[in-house]
Design a protein that fits this description.
single chain
Length: 103
Amino acid sequence: MPADVEPHHLSPNHRDTLLQIFQHPTSHNIEWHAVLSLLRAVGEVEDRKDGNVKVTLGGESEVLVRPKHKDVDVSLIVDLRRMLANAGYADAVKEMEERGKEA
């Protein structure tokens, strides 16, 4: 994804989740269902028999363990940040944050 393009294909909810994932300090109330919805919008998500999901994003694949509670933990957020940044979404997040400050 080019750095100067906002991810127009994402819904407002997906954009909010993306911003939460890149937020510092790390948010502790990002819901698993919101993360899955975002990942389905930006990559490929394969449900596995063990309840976990295999995510392919930007040529990188990783199996994510479904959290026991509704919110994801910090270690998963760090993994998501890395995957999304490698796929080009960090620059899009930065641009969305800058636009938000101008509004």
